[in-house]
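Recap slide: Malto-oligosyltrehalose trehalohydrolase, sequence and predicted structure.
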Amino acid sequence: MLFEVWAPHARDRVTLELNGERHPLERDAERPGWWTGTAPAADGDRYGFALDDGPLLPDPRARRLPDGPDGLAAVVDHDTYAWRNDTPRLRLRSAVLYELHVGTFTPEGTLDAAAERLGELAGLGITHVELMPLCPFPGVHGWGYDGVAPWAVHEPYGGPEALKRFVDTAHGLGLGVVLDVVHNHLGPSGNHLPAFGPYFTDTHHTPWGAAVNLDAPGSDEVRAYFLGSALAWLRDYRVDGLRLDAVHALADTRALTFLEELSAAVDELAKEQGRQHFLIAESDQGDPRTTTPRTAGGLGIHAQWNDDFHHALHTALTGEAQGYYADFARAPMAALAKTLTRVFFHDGTYSSFRGRHHGRPVDRERTPAHRFLGYAQTHDQIGNRATGDRLSATLSPGLLACAAALVLTGPSVPMLFMGEEWGAGTPWMYFTDHTDPELAEAVRRGRRREFAAHGWAEEDIPDPQEPATRDRSVLDRTERERDPHKRLLAWHRELIALRRAQPDLTDPDLAGVKVAYDEDARWLVFRRGDIRVAVNLGKEPAAVPLGSNGHDRILATWTPTDPPGPDGLLHLAAESAVVLTDG
């Protein structure tokens, strides 16, 4: 078997240790910084590399780390898995995504346990499961954004074979799988890449310290490292798409950016395999060039999260106005209307949170709606709150139903966060399992200090390192059998079925979306083709002037509602939503 490693920091020698035996590697004459050698090996064999007189370290491209990031790598033979199911042919345009954290989706917190529950999601009408990061990190439980081995699968989740079983099961149910990957930083503990080469650079700095080296000397190999990792998920595990974490934090000044290079490689792989791979970016730049095709001068990412829609919806539902919500909260119904029709709220407007103008307009005539994802809740927007409280902690079932209607019938590709479909009462908190005591204490103190500055008492901030914090974040499925959770679940299922049945609800025409609203009465209505969706977020009934052609028909309603009468008024109960057609 061929073993190779990029280790330009090695001065004189690199040694492979395989099953306790040492094998010297030789410099590769064709590739500067590379060391290669062969040795007999089989699936599961343990190995590592020693540079000069340094310690034995895991392979930077380890496909498996059975003992965690500080242990030896294990050989993985991907050909040993016998795939049972073909990949379903699913389009992003008609997708309904479901963000899922493996460690809290079930009490067991494993991929196999999660796979057993995938039938629930297929029955709900979900098309794609978006898994939060799976790369190894120290400890057992965490969000996954502190991963340190971008080619491997966290062993407590079940390792590589469990991910294949999960994807295989999902495909058998007609579900696609999207994997969240992190290219902008690695975790603070268990990261051995700096010993091998210039994976990081002080040329740029990020919130996590030195930036991943995408444009300084040595960056060709670093880019190839992360690009190869991304393609491996799509190729070796048959994942259908990737969600790219915080691409605005990728410091990259090269003419051909890493994101363009990645999108081109993913498109080429999809062509070779005859599959439909896609990339979804998280970006706070408000820049439509992120999702503009490369042929038109864009980065070629297929879609992106739209936090502006979330912020507008959140302020309209809750009235919160702190931090980045401030600009949206001044006129939340107007902000919601703008994000439904023009995608970005900040499209060149002044952002008080940033203290400057931000964003640029989306070309509604040329940009399809499925370039953007819309959502009421995500792991970020729940877990980064002081106590991890979901919308269900403070909102009525009626307002949750309104949020669902706006997300699931809106122009963007809808995404739910796990448990949202039944208004889960469990929080989803920030939790860690750092094995380094000093790091664990620093995270604990930092979390409490951060929220103390916003008026929270330290004793009210959950300890991220306390196992109970993770345990309290695990979904409680018994809620699904009792109201109001049972009713909310049925409402979500009805809306998703409606989205699938009504072509107007997956129409990519952004310019065709029409919105009317009343800021004071707190109602909003939008039209997509023959479909109209009305929500009343107010505490009093509302008379919504819809007009009528005499053929109006109710398709779905949260509370009993009649079509508009001859006067064209839709009488909508407080905190309620309705979907109707006049076609």
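The first strand starts at residue 2 and ends at 6.
The first helix runs from residue 102 to 105.
(End of recap.)
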